[in-house]
Amino acid sequence: MESLSQALKGMIKPEYRKMAEDKSRELLADPLLQKWRARFPFVTDEDLKPHLNAVYQFLKEYKVCTTACPGLADCPHDLQGHYTTIVAERDSGEAKLYDQRTPCKRFKAFEAQSAVHRRIRSFYVDDRALNEGYSHSEILKIDPERASDVAQVFEYVQRTKERGLSPYGLYLQGEHGVGKTFLMCYLLYELAKAELSGVIVYMPDFAEDLKSMFEEPQKLKETIDLLKETDLLVFDDIGAENLNPWLRDHVLGSILNYRMDRKPTFFTSNHDLDTLERHFSFTTRDGEDISRGRRLMERVRPFVQVVTLAGSNKRGLGRSQE
Question: pLDDT (tens digit, 9 = 90+) per residue, 118-147?
Answer without folding.
Answer: 777 877 776 666 665 566 666 766 666 677
